[in-house]
Design a protein that fits this description.
The chain is α/β, with parallel strands linked by helices. Helices cover 38% and strands 23% of the residues. It is built from 20 helices and 27 strands. An eight-stranded antiparallel sheet has the order 3-2-4-1-10-9-11-15. The protein has a seven-stranded antiparallel sheet with strand order 5-6-7-8-12-13-14. Strands 19-18-20-21-22 form a five-stranded parallel sheet, sandwiched between helices. Strand 23, helix 17 and strand 24 form a beta-alpha-beta unit. The radius of gyration is 25 Å and the shape is globular. It starts with a strand and ends in a 17-residue tail after the last helix. The structure holds 2-deoxy-2-amino glucitol-6-phosphate (AGP). 2-deoxy-2-amino glucitol-6-phosphate binds next to helix 10. The site of 2-deoxy-2-amino glucitol-6-phosphate has 16 residues, from helix 10.
């Protein structure tokens, strides 16, 4: 769960490496470093803490050179410290690594017994020792890396620089992401697309078990056995501005307000308003396969899990297929009954979350069809899946997921409508009506954001001292209550819980007193009356009640302290709107508290460890 970058070309590489690391900082931010060949030797700079500390060190040392590698770390082996920071330099070889080497204990013992002086607690330094030993035995860098890789078990994206061959970098990948960027007389590598976007849009995605030699003129990819791989670059049309803050105080706020645009991009080409139908989707299924689906499993973690919970509701309600939603880390390893005839939908913004990836692989090995819903193009989960149905939210930089959540909901609803239609549960008129209503989402989301922003900021200011906050909802609003609580927890560090409103009287109601704000999602839907009852119960116990309700709902206004109104929409669309004030609430509470909104403590954007 670290970020790596590399450059080989004709320009001074220090600013390019730092810029790439800045764009990757969301992947980890407990230390950072660079290794640059200065014409004679490799100079390494490393600093503990945020990237600005490394920037300061680079500013002072002013390392010169046109080949280099960089790293931003999220500690797995060994505490955050300078000695554990990457790059690790052993002899003439410098290495940066994202991932976990599983056989590190055996390697450490073997290398120590052979006389190696190991400085750090990391698994990465062992990789550098291995490569160095092959270099010293007379192998060229490519051969040395290949030989070392044969001795590694586990996950890695590696970039290796050698003072003996400073005109090239060698990179390799297994289970951690690695993108190669092709420029004009310069070649880059990075953990993901935004790191390279200001420099090139022509990118090649390395697959597991592959390595590449990067030189000024391009990249040569081979498998571990040495066979050559021919792969065309893909043109990435995200603009660099999409990865910048665009005047907002934080990426998270920018991404909240980007949701109408992200929704437009995600729906484009998929909803056919003229025909009143959903186009054939890139989901790896045709109509006869849709008819044959006997059960759907939705697998995900965190916010994506909340989207998957909402997806279950869409699929069961519209397509009438039994659907189960599973936390990916719980699903894997418990021998789930999954196999032929099952459709597994793996939902993941990054497409790299290890638990989701392994769970989906397990299901696929048992004969299930796997559909990935992901945002990052070419990431691991879509690559292993039978179908990849991308959200087109653009890069999400804030650790707290917002625009990827609502676009995941859109993809899940489209899959549900498509399945329902192809299985004969939605006739042409009902499909047309849903398509028409979905097409209004960007506009409805824009209105909701604009009309609630100030009000929610005021409410957040009033309650930002609360130590505990409850979120309640029923039906499709239940996962949104969970999502509201998760958002608040992760960025403001306030204790928050989401509950199915009907569960209140089975225990959680004991938590309520005058100091506890309770946010109740009570849009006008099939659950409305009952949820309103829960709202009154909370009010009767002196809670501070904030209702997120349909516009013009006087009953909700009368029983709540604050009312946040969303436009009136059909039940399937309420989650797209009710979540918006909850995202804003979490954002403003965190901002008033002054926490690090985009990079909250202990978290990382992409979780590639178990
Ligand atoms: C979202 O706000 C969280 N930071 C986190 O729960 C995230 O959703 C989870 O780690 C799953 O990530 P993925 O969507 O990239 O698989």
């Amino acid at each position: 769960m670290c970020g790596i970058v590399g450059y080989v070309g004709g320009a001074e590489c220090a600013p390019i490496l730092l810029d790439g690391l800045r764009r990757l900082e969301y992947r980890g931010y407990d230390s950072a470093g660079t290794a640059i060949f200065d014409g004679q030797r490799i100079g390494v700079l490393r600093a503990v803490g945020k990237l600005r500390n490394l920037e300061k060190a680079v500013d002072e040392a002013k390392p010169a050179g046109t080949t280099g590698i960089g790293h931003t770390r999220w500690a797995t082996h060994g505490r955050p410290s300078e000695v554990n920071a990457h790059p690790h330099l052993v002899g003439d070889v410098a290495v940066v690594h994202n991932g976990i080497i599983e056989n590190h204990l055996a390697l450490r013992a073997r290398l120590s017994a052979a006389g190696a002086t190991i400085q750090s607690d990391t698994d990465t330094e062992l990789v550098a020792h291995l490569i160095d030993s092959h270099v010293r035995a007379g192998e060229g860098l490519e051969g040395a890396v290949r030989a070392a890789l044969r001795e590694l078990h586990g996950a890695y994206a590696l970039a290796v620089l050698s003072a003996r061959e400073p005109e090239r970098l060698v990179v390799a990948k297994n289970a951690s992401p690695l993108v190669i960027g092709l420029g004009d007389g310069e070649t880059y590598c990075g953990s993901d697309i935004p790191a390279l976007l200001p420099y090139t849009r022509d990118m090649v995605f390395l697959e597991d078990g592959e390595m590449a030699v990067l030189e000024r003129g391009g990249a040569r990819i081979t498998r571990l056995d040495g066979t050559l791989v021919e792969r065309e670059p893909r043109y990435i049309d995200w603009s660099p501005v999409m990865a910048e803050k665009a005047g907002f105080k934080h990426f998270m706020l920018k991404e909240i307000f980007e949701q109408p645009r992200a929704m437009e991009d995600t729906l484009r080409g998929r909803l056919d308003r003229e025909r009143g139908d959903i186009n054939e989707l890139e989901i790896g299924l045709d109509a006869s396969a849709a008819a044959a689906v006997r059960r759907v499993y939705l697998l995900a973690c965190g916010t994506s899990y909340h989207a998957a919970m909402t997806g279950r509701y869409f699929i069961e309600r519209l397509a009438r297929v039994p659907a189960t939603v599973e936390i990916a880390s719980e699903f894997r390893g418990r021998s789930p009954v999954v196999g032929e005839g099952d459709l597994v939908i793996a939902v993941s913004q990054s497409g790299e979350t290890l638990d989701t990836l392994v769970a989906a692989k397990e299901a696929k090995a048992n004969g299930a069809k796997v559909l990935a819903i992901a945002n990052v193009i070419g990431s691991a989960i879509p690559r292993m899946a039978d179908g990849a149905f991308y959200t087109h939210a653009g890069p999400e930089i804030g650790v707290a997921s917002t625009k990827c959540f609502t676009t995941q909901l859109a993809n899940l609803l489209m899959v549900a409508i498509w399945l329902a239609n192809r299985r004969g549960h939605l006739d042409a008129d009902a499909t047309r009506a849903l398509v028409e209503d979905m097409a209004r989402l960007p506009h409805l989301m824009r209105d909701t954001l604009m009309s609630t922003r100030q009000l929610v900021a005021n409410i957040a200011k009033r309650y930002n001292d609360a130590r505990d906050v409850l979120f309640l909802g029923r039906g499709p609003s239940f996962p949104i209550a969970l999502e509201g609580a998760l958002k608040l927890k992760e960025i403001s560090y306030v204790h928050a819980e989401g509950y199915a409103a009907g569960e209140m009287k089975h225990g959680p109601i004991a938590l309520i007193d005058a100091a506890v704000p309770v946010l109740v999602l009570c849009p006008k839907d099939a659950w409305y009356e009952r949820t309103l009852g829960n709202l009154e119960e909370a009010r009767a116990r002196e809670a501070q009640v904030i209702a997120i309700a349909t516009e013009g709902d006087e009953a909700a206004r009368n029983v709540s302290h604050d009312l946040v109104e969303i436009p009136s929409v059909r039940e399937e669309l309420t989650p797209f709107l009710t979540v918006l004030p909850l995202q804003l609430y979490a954002y403003y509470v965190a901002d008033f508290k002054g926490t690090d909104v985009d990079q909250p403590r202990n978290l990382a954007k992409t979780v590639t460890v178990e």
